[in-house]
Structure formats: C-alpha cells, structure tokens
Amino acid sequence: MSTSGLKPIIFYDIPTIVQGQPLSPNTMKTRYCLTFKGLPFETVWLECPKIKPFYEQNFLTPTSSVINGTPTSMHTLPVIMDPNTNRFISDSFAIAQYLDEQYPDTPRVLPYGTTALVHVFNTAYLDAIKGTLMMGIVESAQKLNPESREHVIRTRTEQFGIPWEQFALAEKREEQWNELRAACNTMDGWYAKSSGQFVLGDTPCFADFIVAGRFKWMQYCFEKQEWEEVKSWNGGRWGKLVDATDKYLDCSK
Length: 253
Fold this sequence. Notes:
Strand content: 5-15%
Order of helices and strands: EHEHEEEEHHHHHHHH
Strand order of the largest sheet: 2-1-5-6
Largest sheet: 4 strands, mixed
Distance between the termini: 22 Å
Structural class: alpha+beta
C-alpha cells in the first residue's frame, strides 16, 4: 500500500514538563518507526491517569509486564489508531509488526527473517538493563506533569510494595550507575559484532530504536554531566547512536 493519500495515523504518547518533548523509551520506539517509514502521523498526548480509561473506552487488551517476578497487566503507551484501517494497536513491538505488514512499500523496521531475532534481542536487552529499573522510574517521574507524576508514584509504590523514598536511596545510586555501565558494556559487545554502526549494518532497524530510545531518555532525564559520561562510554558509541537516529525522532507532529 502506498503512503500517498493516507490519513495520518494517531499516535498516543505521554506529555512531559517540556511541551512536545517525548520521554518514554517505549513510545519513542514507535515514533522512530513512523518517521523512519515516512508515514503521516499526529500525536495525541495522554496524561498517565487517562491511559487506563482510554483502554477501557476503546476495548483494548492490557499489555503485560513482569514486576517482582510476577506477570502484571498494564495499561501502557504507545498505542496507535490507524484511521486507514480503523484499527487500534498497542505495544511497540506489535506496532512495528503491524506497520511493516500494512505498509510493505515503506522501509521495514523488522527486515524479512529478523522478527524472531529482534524479539530475542529485546528480551536480552531487557535483561541487561533490569538493574537500572528503579533509577529509570525515579528519573522519569521528575520530568512528568504533576498529575502523571503523582499517578506514577502511587502506582509504582503499590506494584513494588515499597515506599517511594526507597526508589531513590542515595546509597543505591552508585550501585545502579554501575549496573548501567555493565549493561552498556554488554550491549557494546553485541554492536561490536556488526559490520556497521547499527545492529544489522548500515541501516537502523527496530532493535536500534529499542536501544536508541533508552539513551535518548538518558539525554533528557540525566544531569548534563551524567549524560556526558554515558556518551563517553564504549568509545562514544551511545552518543553516536543517538545522533544517528535523531532524524527519525520527529517531535513536530
């Protein structure tokens, strides 16, 4: 299907204290995909407390996440609504698959024969960064608007069963930073096997958008000196990855 004459896809994202600036690494994956494929889209911003009612109003099935070792139903973004097919799709990986299948004349984010491999890559990536989860929750909450920040604090303390203050203990920060450094070293080993800058060579794919979204989040959320340090790790690989994928992170829509 050609993109000529398409109605813009509605892309649901979470707003931040900086208007038009995305925050979530998960929603950024979809924003990268839409721009990479050259598909027209418009952003609808949903504060966190409004996501569950949005799911219920549109009869969407919750996504699943593992919290404290237990599979947990979650009402999460990204979600897209494609007015060209009248379909809602949730979960960034499912959205990537849908966009490739529905718009085969656009560049693929999951090149033929790689879907299972990229799924395995994503699983390994999540395992590599799991030690940084608490740090990620705290850093993200600080960049959210008040109603979303309050929602995140309330729901995460309920899910993890600990007071909010324990998410950001000063004595844990060095440990979490070391976990992040170890995760970067692990991912650097994966990228070092490639013949190009990206996982599959010279052209980015969904696997690169998974990783780039996380580092773009760091650029937004970390203190400047912290981001400068991360950028310097692994021969500057992560700053270069962010720079190379920024052109696919269209925040103007």
